[in-house]
User: What shape does this take?
Amino acid sequence: MDIQMIIVFLLFALAAVYLGKMLYSNLKPKKGNSCGANCKCGVDFSNVTKNS
Assistant: This one.
C-alpha cells in the first residue's frame, strides 16, 4: 500500500466522521428549545376562545 492510498483512506475516514458528527448534532434533541408541556413559543393565545 503506497502513501497515496493511505492519504485517501485517511481523508475518507475524516469526512465520514465529520458527516456523522453533523448528522448526530442535527438529530439530537435540543435543550431548552423544544416545546414541551410548558411551551413558551412566542405565540399569543390570549384572544383565542374555546368552542364547545
Summary: Residues 9 and 15 are 10 Å apart (CA to CA). Residues 3-27 form the longest helix (25 residues). Residues 1-27 form one domain.
